Amino acid sequence: MINLPLLEASLAGIALLVGLWFIWVNHTETSLFHDSLVLQQFAEHLSAGDLSDFWPHIDNYAAKAPGDLYMSIYPHQAGLLLLMTGLRCLFGSGMVKALQVMNLLAAIGVSALLCSLARAVERPRGERAVLALVAYGFLPNVLLSVFPYGNTIGLLLVLAASRVLLASLRNASGARSAALGLASGLLALSGLMIKSTYIYLVAGVVLIALLGCIKEKALVRAVVLLFSTGALLALSSSVPRAGFKALVGYALPEDQPKMTWLAIGLDYQPSTDPRPGWYNPIGMDNRIRHNGNVGDEEATAESVVLDRLGHLAGNPGYGAWFFAKKLTYEWLDPTYDSYFVASFSKMSEEDAARWGRGADACFYPMDLTKPHGYVCLVLFIVMDACQSLLYLGAALGARDLMREALRGGRGAALAEYALPCVFFAGFLLYLVWEGKSMYTLPLAISLLPTAARGIATFVRRPHRKCFAQ
């Protein structure tokens, strides 16, 4: 008999040790990834009461101060800026290490949440053991903790909110259900303030929750859920903006129109990035050119989107190449991307000299002249194999879920469809949105319970037809 609590605790401990080792061997002083780099600099200055990055505040985008310009282009980063400023106030020069450790604990928390979801829907013990192995053994999220950013923390908070929401809908007690619903809203609010793009996670889970309400004919609860979700989305934008205004002294402009991110996701600028639909400066240039006029920005972005769609539709061969290449870059290697982001880690000059790094003082995961290079090579091979197993298992698990749904009867618990629904929503979003493997990593993680189901089902069933010769 497998002792599941002991297995999960052991795997969590191993993941924690691997993550702490990776943080230690990185010796990150700052990240050269632009968003992380500038937010860290702004947080350092704000924590010291220095507002020079943001003042003088002027309307002319082309002449704005660096912080004013950045936050005017990306106002959705206000929540992460406030978090990093708070960590700088608390930990001083240890802010980056504190954020990395928070990311690591969040990564392990995500795995624990996935395992708890399997317990809640009463999946078989063998399947839960497989899930523990794949959830804690899928290390990209653990290794991504070295990136001083808010992705992993936001993911934990939003997944925790989803878990609590599903628990509240199963609870018959009105008071307890309301308390759980409130807790879910606060967790989701915190997560979206740190990483606003996780709105698709919220949307997927809320959709499943609404279906559950309709199935149980709880129409009042469905209406409350819809209004609460709308209020949550409004607060996730307004609360960090209010915090920024209180700290800096002026209000942020409206966010870039969503059409801008579609324009980026459908564009191809090989001089900027050889990967179709990945970041290019369309959005930034558009905002500066129109001086923050959202209506003009949307009109320009819409014309780009229509032009790109017309070009893709009129050239089906090119369209097939574009989307095949974009999907390949997005989904083939979230494993590689966790290492790629780690290579942006820059050490202090003292650490670089002590560890014999090059003049650029950057961390190279695959540097085979150093002992860590061989460890990272092994980790990379293991993660690559786990990623292939993840996709195969998820395909088998999805087939099993579909069979149960079509058979009727009890079938799978409604909550089991939440994460596959999240994956499907995110897959469609990033088909046309600005692409990055780092963005699709949470979607790969959301497949883990379905993959565990598929692997466990495959192992349980005899395969005489496959092997009998």
UniProtKB/TrEMBL annotation:
The keyword Transmembrane is annotated on this UniProt entry: yes
Entry keywords, A to Z: Membrane, Transmembrane, Transmembrane helix
Bilayer-spanning residue ranges: 7-24, 73-91, 103-121, 133-161, 219-239, 372-393, 414-433
Name of the protein this chain belongs to: Glycosyltransferase RgtA/B/C/D-like domain-containing protein
UniProt source species: Parolsenella catena
Lineage: Bacteria, Bacillati, Actinomycetota, Coriobacteriia, Coriobacteriales
